[in-house]
Amino acid sequence: DMKVTQMPRYLIKRMGENVLLECGQDMSHETMYWYRQDPGLGLQLIYISYDVDSNSEGDIPKGYRVSRKKREHFSLILDSAKTNQTSVYFCASSFGSSAETLYFGSGTRLTVL
Amino acid sequence: GEKVEQHESTLSVREGDSAVINCTYTDTASSYFPWYKQEAGKSLHFVIDIRSNVDRKQSQRLTVLLDKKAKRFSLHITATQPEDSAIYFCAAPSGSWQLIFGSGTQLTVMP
């Protein structure tokens, strides 16, 4: 079953708290992504991971960091969350080393108060 | 880097009519143009793509047209149905690793 799983689906945090968003995939995809979606802005890439411990900044990495210790797991960490990080976060994965078909998780709606 | 502009932020059509969503891109080296669909409250999923070696690709009621000279590609949906209502995103690659997405078009199919 080809699936990208994100946890949690909804999360409310206070400004300054740490946030951990988790993503898993069961397709042994090498490449994984974290995007955020804001109205009118489409999807903005935060980080790409090419494989275990091989990560690269996307277009908007500031305020975020990632961790990939196993191929099937990719975490997004917000240290000291800010209100402007309120958004919907999507994890995605793709086969191989190119931005071909992306498989998306169901998203995490994060609210930072 | 690549920039993708999606021209229609919203589009309303009557059930059974056709819908067209247009996108432009900036990088002449781009060779792969996928479209993704996001139904209300759900995630995105791939619907169709086109590569630069062709200028037209059809899959059932969906057709993608590519005009490399104008750096423009479009998604055509014929005989629209209520289940076609969704946000549609076009995308183009930036380098080998990254997809740049357009801002999305909210398509509403009215009965």
Structure report:
The complex is a heterodimer of chains A (113) and B (111). Chain A is mostly beta strands and 113 residues long. Helix content of chain A is 0%, strand content 57%. Chain A contains no helices and 11 strands. In chain A, the strands form 2 sheets. In chain A, strands 2, 4, 5, 6, 9, 10 and 11 form a 7-stranded mixed beta sheet that branches. The N and C termini of chain A lie far apart (37 Å). The mean pLDDT of chain A is 93. Chain B is mostly beta strands. Chain B has no helices and 11 strands. In chain B, the strands form 2 sheets. In chain B, strands 2, 4, 5, 9, 10 and 11 form a 6-stranded mixed beta sheet that branches. A 5-stranded antiparallel beta sheet of chain B has the order 1-3-8-7-6, with no helix packed on it. The mean pLDDT of chain B is 94. The chains are: A mainly beta (113), B mainly beta (111). Chain A binds chain B through residues 31, 35, 40-43, 45, 48, 50, 56, 58, 90, 97-107, and chain B through 6, 9, 32, 34, 36, 42-46, 49, 89, 93-94, 96-104.
List descriptors.
heterodimer, A: 113 residues, mainly beta, 11 strands, 0% helix, globular, B: 111 residues, six-stranded mixed beta sheet, five-stranded antiparallel beta sheet
List the helices and strands and how they pair.
The complex is a heterodimer of chains A (113) and B (111).
Chain A: E1 4-7, E2 10-13, E3 19-25, E4 31-38, E5 42-51, E6 54-57, E7 65-70, E8 73-78, E9 87-94, E10 103-104, E11 108-112
Parallel strand pairs in A: 2-11
Antiparallel strand pairs in A: 1-3, 3-8, 4-5, 4-9, 5-6, 7-8, 9-10, 9-11
Chain B: E1 4-6, E2 10-14, E3 19-25, E4 32-38, E5 44-51, E6 56-59, E7 62-67, E8 72-77, E9 86-94, E10 98-101, E11 105-110
Parallel strand pairs in B: 2-11
Antiparallel strand pairs in B: 1-3, 3-8, 4-5, 4-9, 6-7, 7-8, 9-10, 9-11
